[in-house]
Design a protein that fits this description.
heterodimer; A: about 200 residues; alpha/beta; two-stranded antiparallel ribbon; globular; B: about 180 residues; Rossmann fold; 6-stranded parallel beta sheet; 9 helices
């Protein structure tokens, strides 16, 4: 089935409604998508550590149980951290949601097919790992319903959004990790965090 | 069995350092410390499928204002290498307690290569290494490493020598 959704429109529509959610963006295209939608100190984009986005989200969700934590990452990045689905399923954080923007490609390295292009089902893996809410989204109507789930549903939530394999202009966030960390902690915890 | 209950002392050092999340892939050498953490309602224990998940967990916890420590066996250090790049680039605090394998008393030769490489792997990724060669050094080393990690935004590993742990065979390990 051919995808119809545009990734930048999906991510922009998701972040427009984020409220006070804390966002972790997986490396590569999803970090650029989040920046294209508007950079924020409460968005922590990864420039490396492929496979780590969901677990950064878990750590954040345990530290901030009263805030929604939204991980926005790609299919290739998520495939590298499949074990984290199991770890998250056991911890069962009610405030953690993961949106996988699935273009079935490794976008930064030449658009080679990922495993999802060959039928590997990330949503089924999350369901098997005891996520509370799992959805596969293919059109705008499904996305709008899934967006509410990502922002307000009882987690862990996994939404896999099938998008077109587009090559888009780079929109880069700051790349200095210390800046990204400090601005996030300052916005969340105040000027002089006790911890 | 040594007279010093070093896992209990390490547990107290972690509590004193304000650690509230402990991530681990279980190891025989950490068995008692893991049990102490699980029994504590104020410590959130996170069982990992692979050690690199823990590096990311600690990063997220710190972004959210909570201190996290990791427990692993030396074999797990090799699983962390690439993700440690994030720890370094963001100058994130990290405290990892490593029970050593592949040293004096090792009963499984396949543990030897990673055990022998553990220190250099950590140092190559800018993680400071403290080695504990005797039980009484364990808690002070953990306390010192914790202070340097959380108040100095640095990555610290404490390696607990195999002779401190004292497991000599598969049979003894499975009987623990």
């Amino acid at each position: 089935m051919t995808a119809v959704l545009h990734r930048r429109e999906v991510v922009e529509a998701l972040l427009k409604e984020r409220g006070d959610a804390l966002v972790v963006a997986g490396l590569g295209s999803t970090a650029w998508d989040c920046t294209a939608a508007g950079d924020s100190p409460l968005t922590f984009p990864l420039w490396g550590a492929m496979g780590a986005a969901a677990m950064v989200g878990l750590g954040l969700s345990l530290a901030q149980p009263d805030r929604r934590v939204l991980v926005i990452t790609g299919d290739g990045e998520m495939l590298m951290g499949l074990g984290s689905f199991a770890t998250i399923g056991v911890q069962a954080p009610r405030n953690l949601s993961i949106a996988v923007i699935d273009n079935e490609r490794y976008g930064e390295t030449g658009m080679q097919s990922t495993h999802t292009a060959h039928g590997v089902d990330l949503a089924a893996v999350a369901l098997g790992c005891r996520f509370s809410s799992v959805r596969l989204v293919r059109d705008w109507k499904e996305f709008e319903s899934a967006r509410a789930e990502l922002l307000r549903g009882a987690g862990p939530v996994l939404v896999q959004v099938k998008v077109l394999p587009e090559k888009l202009p780079l929109v880069l966030p700051p790349h200095d990790g210390i800046v990204l960390k400090d601005r996030f902690r300052r916005a969340l915890l105040g000027a002089t965090p006790a911890v | 069995m040594t007279a010093i209950d070093w896992p209990l002392e390490i547990y107290s050092a972690l509590k004193d350092a304000g650690v509230r999340i402990v991530g681990f892939v279980p190891d025989g050498g950490h068995k008692r410390l893991i049990e102490l953490c699980i029994a504590d309602p104020d410590v959130r224990c996170v069982v990992l499928t692979t050690e690199e998940e823990g590096i990311a967990l600690a990063a997220g916890a710190w972004l959210g204002g909570v201190r996290c420590a990791l427990l692993m066996q030396s074999s797990g250090v090799g699983n962390c290498i690439n993700v440690l790049g994030m720890t370094h680039e963001c100058r994130l605090p990290l405290l990892v307690l490593v029970t050593m394998r592949g040293e004096q008393g090792e009963f499984n030769p396949w543990q030897v290569p990673m055990g022998q490489a553990t220190r250099s792997v950590l140092e190559s990724m800018s993680v400071a290494v403290h080695r504990v060669a005797a039980a009484e050094e364990a808690a002070p080393s953990v306390a010192a490493a914790a202070k340097r990690a959380y108040s100095g935004n640095s990555a610290q590993a404490v390696l607990i020598a195999q002779q401190v742990i004292g497991i000599k065979s598969f049979q003894e390990q499975s009987a623990r």
